[in-house]
Amino acid sequence: MIKEYDKVKLVTGEIARISEVLEESIAYIADIFRADGSISIEQIAHNDIASVFVETEQPIKKAV
To answer: Are 5 and 23 in contact (CB under 8 A)?
Structure first.
């Protein structure tokens, strides 16, 4: 399930951040980060998404 604020990779290879879930597993509003450095806000379909980034917590090494 894709949620608000998830970072996704589109089938075009572009990276996007979901800003609103319009209809679960069907439609979303996304901030799309373009190759030229611009950001566009567009409605995308579930089929436009290739993958979802999963964040994990990593411990920080303490200074000696």
So the answer is: no
DSSP designation for 62:
P
Give the separation between CA 7 and CA 2, rounded to whole angstroms.
9
Any idea where the domains of the chain sit in the sequence? 7-52
In a structure prediction context, what are the per-residue pLDDT tens digits for the chain, which is 64 residues long? 999 999 999 999 999 999 999 999 999 999 999 999 999 999 999 999 999 999 888 888 888 7
Radius of gyration of the chain (CA): 14
Query: How many CA atoms lie within 13 Å of 3's alpha carbon, on the beta-carbon side?
Result: 2
**Model pTM score:** 0.85
